[in-house]
Amino acid sequence: MQNRTLETRGWLIEVMNCVDKIQGHTFTLDQVYECEQWLKILHPENNNVRAKIRQQLQIMRDKGLIEFVSRGKYKKIML
Fold first, then answer.
1. Percentage of the chain with pLDDT > 70?
2. Which H or E element spans position 3?
3. What are phi and psi for residue 58, nearest 5 degrees?
4. Disulfide check for 18: which of 2, 3, 6, 35 has CB 3.0–4.6 Å away?
């Protein structure tokens, strides 16, 4: 169970790092998808990286770190 928690936190931190590297206060899902290859290298066992990215963006939204603006568009709040 501990390993699963660490893996979940790792995904969140890695997707947060991807978002943080994007210039400006707004960003698109496609911009985050540009980290897909890097995330595949970090997590070769995961065959659904894009779904995992979307899941992590939802978690970030729920934590108040980003705001959903419209389909595929987000705004940084506290990164």
1. 89
2. helix 2-21
3. -65, -40
4. 35
Tokens representing residue 55 in the block: 């899941």
> Rg (Cα) of the chain, in Å, rounded?
12
CA distance 34 to 27: 12
How would residue 1 be classed by pLDDT, with cut points 50, 70 and 90?
Answer: very low
Query: Which residues form the domain of 8?
Result: 2-76
pLDDT category of residue 7 using cuts at 50, 70 and 90: low
Residue type for position 54 = R
Q: What is the CATH number of the domain that holds 48?
A: 1.10.10.10
* 40-50 pLDDT per residue, tens: 999 999 999 99
Strand partners, 70: 73
